[in-house]
Amino acid sequence: MTFKLGLVLALAAAPALAQQSPYAEYQRMALENAPVELFELGGEELWKKRQGPKNASLERCDLGQGPGVLKGAYAGLPRHFADTDRVMDLEARLLHCMTTLQGRSRQEATKRVFGNADRPSEMEYLSAYVARQSNGMKIAPGRTHPKEQEAYDLGRKLFFHRAGAWDFSCASCHGEEGKRIRMSDLPVLSNPQFARPLMATWPAYRVSTSSFVTLQWRMNDCYRQMRMPEPTFGSDTTIALIAYMMATAAGEPYRGPAIKR
Amino acid sequence: MRHSLPLCFAAMLAACAAPATIGERPEVTTGDLDRITAVLKRDFHERGQAKMDRIELDAVQRLCNLHSDNPPEALAKPLEQAQFKAIPFPEGNLIGDWKRGERVAQSGRGSMWSDKPGVQDGGSCYNCHQLSPREPAHGTLGPSLAGFGKLRGTSAEMQKYAYGRIYNSKAYNVCSQMPRLGHAGTLNEQQIKDLVGLLLDPASPVNQ
């Protein structure tokens, strides 16, 4: 319900914005028409749906704030989980709950993690639903457990690690201020000034592809364009990078799921 | 490397003002590189043409990672020379067809797991460089190449420089951010010649 209130408030504020520039009007229209709320509702349905060999829902899934607690869960991820002794992001944790609570195989549950405009994935719907319930809360991934510190350090090193057919690191594109690829601005994600507003908006609905995109998808597609092999879904590499970037954005109020170009 | 000097200085100043800035590039050791490579081998899998051998670091990547893209001259020079020696420069005129070169420059495909090897590969040039003034949607990660040939002429030496720089940018600046497009197998000899044409041909839009 809080998300509906947020939407109403944003729309109420929009006419004032519209007077400032034509772009503000475009933003208002995009906000009005983008189906983010539909993804959240679809995710809620999947969260409560009984499925898998155990015919169970995800309602007892522990995303770090206790079983079934969704409020603020996304803003506190990635974090260390004692039951797996692993640092996990939202998507890795959802996968964990699908295998443990619902008894599904990892293979079946990861068969189609990235959807498209015609058919979004279960993971995308669920990400939208869970993330919304951190809206307005400060980004605060785990930083105290030794494994959380380890993930942060690995993520920071990976961010600058040049490899692959084209010798790229994340910093090749996201390391210098004021640069673009074609017409796309490139945020310097190692700098809190740029990481904060950006990380506060993921996951998001992407207008250009009419699809909902998650951080695991973002890691996957960046490595594709870096001419690297494919990172495995929910692997430590992807989680370490997400942990590093979320830590760099720490303190920023979460504003997602947002709408992107 | 000349370009990175002022940056380095700025980074040092920033470090003085705020110790252990979150965004600083961390120092890495050879042990770190081996550990990271092992993690990547465990966490990645081959897909399409993107095989797992891409995880392995070659001498250039290793040196640049160890020295934050700013290695000492004594280590950089011999490696640049070795990269240069490995460039198979074709004989004769290197100025190809600038119209085909423009298509290669426009295409952002090539060497990704989603691309068929050898089909519609491009140089992704416009992703980072300004070239033809007819294309306003260019990136800014690399320097503008507008007027490249107009400023430099079409001498055999300049043709060789343009060809070599596209084939393997690391032969000229070992930690250049530009991909080694020939060395990596993304572009073939004809495509690179066509790009040289785009850069140098007086009729190319780049030189208008």
In short:
The complex is a heterodimer of chains A (261) and B (208). With 261 residues, chain A is mainly α.
Describe the protein's architecture and organization.
The complex is a heterodimer of chains A (261) and B (208). By secondary structure, chain A is mainly alpha-helical. Chain A has a single domain, classed as Cytochrome c-like domain (Cytochrome Bc1 Complex, Chain D, domain 2), CATH 1.10.760.10. Chain A is 46% helix and 8% strand. Chain A is built from eleven helices and eight strands. Chain A has helices spanning 2-18, 22-33, 36-48, 90-100, 106-109, 122-132, 146-160, 170-174, 192-199, 215-225, 236-248; strands at 79-81, 86-88, 180-181, 184-185, 204-206, 211-213, 230-231, 258-260. In chain A, the strands form three sheets. Chain A has a three-stranded mixed β-sheet. In chain A, strands 1-2 form a two-stranded antiparallel sheet. In chain A, strands 3-4 form a two-stranded antiparallel ribbon. In chain A, a hairpin with a 2-residue loop joins strand 3 (180-181) and strand 4. In chain A, 44% of the residues are buried. Chain B is an all-alpha fold. Chain B has a domain at 98-207: Orthogonal Bundle (Cytochrome Bc1 Complex, Chain D, domain 2). In chain B, 44% of the residues lie in helices and 1% in strands. Chain B is built from nine helices and one strand; from the N terminus they run H-H-E-H-H-H-H-H-H-H. Chain B has helices at 4-17, 30-43, 59-66, 73-85, 98-106, 125-128, 148-152, 156-167, 189-200; one strand at 44-45. Chain B is globular, with a radius of gyration of 19 Å. At the A-B interface, helix 7, helix 8, strand 3, helix 10 and strand 7 of A face helix 2, strand 1, helix 3 and helix 6 of B.
